[in-house]
Design brief:
With 473 residues, the protein is mainly alpha-helical. It folds into 4 domains: 146 residues, 3-Layer(aba) Sandwich (Rossmann fold), CATH 3.40.50; 148 residues, HUPs (Rossmann fold); 54 residues, Helicase, Ruva Protein, domain 3 (Orthogonal Bundle); 102 residues, Arc Repressor Mutant, subunit A (Orthogonal Bundle). It has a 3-stranded antiparallel β-sheet with strand order 3-4-7. Helix 1 links the parallel strand 1 and strand 2. Helix 8 crosses helix 10, helix 11 crosses helix 13 and helix 17 packs across helix 18. The N and C termini lie far apart (75 Å). It binds glutamic acid. The site of glutamic acid has 9 residues, from strand 8.
Length: 473
């Protein structure tokens, strides 16, 4: 590519970062990193009534969590639209001086009535151009409208959708600056993209219809338009646009559920982009392979089961000590005591990660490591806690008491020997132990569990179980 790539992610802080926005940010970031370009973060907060500081903080946090670092943007001043009002003003004044925009004094109520009438007749309202040649004096309060060509077409050469043609009869002389002096959204975007020297505008499909208006504004300003790539929407399983109706959509809600950022990034990257039939990507692989040519032009369906599958993959890949640290808030949230011994916690995390789809799930599944299980699975209890259970538990307790070392391998040998001695299957003794130690019939490998709990806890739980079966517990 001839000129250095400069791209931006431009969220409006009117809500938390949702998966659609996060995917746009990710594609833009990957494009920048792939081309060794610059990734800019711009906060589009001109809609003051709906933008909040809280949402800005939350969006930045979500981007950081995903590891989408920006080269330019907050906290450096000048990357929030509300800090750039003078820049918009200067550009509007230049357009006025050059006759590319005109003053309009049509009362908003009058335009609103026309809009309603058009809507009632099933039509889209377009400003009729009443003030276009009216030479409104500057002293009268006025809006500024862009003079667009009355005939012809504007063609968007979209990198994802190809050639999209908009007839000028579909457009109107849109407002750049309102009567109260505030610049409109489309005008700010164009001025920002020009002054930030953006080479590629990568954004959601919902902005495709704004693009011809923006291209005409670039032309009026005398700048070449950047390249455009409009990413198709994310759909719910019912193929309507993904929304809260389909469950959690905010990125931070997925963090709260205990997904790892690697899983989220991997999942979002594959949501609409492909590289052969590869599903699992490290961040480096994504940077190496990402291109807009392989972003599909149809909407992609959000598939939670696939996210969970990837999440399990990345949980299994994560270094155990990192997983241990990540698990801590989830233990706290589950009301479980956090062990001081991090090395032990790392071993516990390792034992839980095979089945864990999220950190929250790992905490719940592994609760017995941190606190004595309060109850047994009743169905399993009636199956395993028969009259034979008491002597078996007693014998197990006796043999385990003198067992050294208390390692999974040694315990397995002990159990095998004992099963042979009693003429039982290993699984019978193992399930009984599992129920006593974990309260459940499904857990990580039971000798691993016993070794991690240690001899004292193992013996205490076997004893307690014995008391329960004898009706004394
Ligand atoms: N602020 C817009 C949004 O959040 C993005 C505009 C753009 O990327 O051009 O949808």
């Amino acid at each position: 590519m001839a000129e250095p790539v400069r791209v931006r992610f431009a969220p409006s802080p009117t809500g938390h970062l949702h998966v659609g926005g996060a995917r746009t940010a990710l594609f833009t970031w990957l494009f920048a990193r792939h081309h060794r370009g610059v990734f800019i973060l711009r906060i589009e907060d001109t809609d003051r009534s709906r933008s909040t500081e809280e949402f800005i903080v939350s969006i930045l946090e979500a981007l950081r969590w995903l590891g989408l670092d920006w080269d330019e943007g907050p906290p450096t001043p000048g990357y929030r639209q509300t800090e750039r009002l003078e820049i918009y003003k200067a550009h509007a004044e230049r357009l006025l001086a050059e006759g590319r925009v005109y003053r309009c004094v049509c009362p908003p109520e009058e335009l609103e009535a026309q809009r309603k009438a058009a809507q009632a007749g099933g039509q889209t309202f377009r400003y009729g151009g009443k003030c276009r040649d009216a030479n409104v004096p500057p002293s009268v309060p006025h809006a500024l409208r862009l003079k667009i060509p009355l005939s012809g077409q504007t063609v968007v050469q979209d990198l994802i959708h190809g050639r999209v043609v908009f007839d000028h009869s579909q457009l109107d002389d849109w407002i750049l600056v309102r009567t109260d002096g505030s610049p409109t959204y489309n005008f700010c975007v164009v001025v920002d993209d020009v002054t930030m020297k953006i080479t590629h505008v990568i954004r959601g499909n919902d902005h495709l219809s704004n693009t011809p208006k923006q291209i005409l504004c670039y032309q009026a300003l005398g700048y070449p338009a950047p390249a455009f790539a409009h990413i198709p929407m994310i759909l719910g399983p019912d193929r309507t646009r993904l929304s809260k109706r389909h469950g959690a959509t905010s990125v931070l809600a997925f963090r709260e559920e205990g997904f790892l950022p690697e899983a989220m990034v991997n999942y979002l990257a594959r949501l609409g982009w492909s590289h052969g039939d590869q599903e699992i990507f490290t961040r480096e692989e994504l940077i190496r392979h990402f291109d807009l040519a392989h972003v599909g032009s149809a909407g992609a369906v959000f598939d939670r089961a696939k996210l969970e599958w990837l999440s399990n993959h990345w949980i299994r890949q994560a270094p155990a000590d990192r997983l241990a640290g990540d698990l801590v808030p989830f233990l706290e949230r589950a009301g479980l005591p956090v062990p001081a011994d991090r090395a032990w916690l790392a071993r516990v995390a390792e034992s839980l990660r095979e089945r864990g789809r999220t950190l929250a799930e790992m905490a719940t599944m592994g609760a017995f490591y941190f606190a004595e299980p309060s109850a047994c699975d009743p169905e399993a209890a009636s199956k395993f806690f028969t009259v034979d259970a008491v002597p078996r538990l007693k014998l197990l307790g006796k043999r385990l008491e003198t067992q050294e070392p208390f390692t999974p391998e040694a315990l397995e040998l002990l159990y095998r020997g004992l099963a042979a001695e009693l003429g039982l299957k290993l699984v019978d003794l193992a399930q009984l132990t599992r129920l006593a130690l974990t309260g459940r019939t499904v857990s990580p490998p039971i000798f691993q569990v016993a070794a991690l709990l240690g001899k004292d806890k193992t013996l205490a739980r076997l004893k307690r179980c014995q008391a329960v079966v004898e009706g004394k517990g």
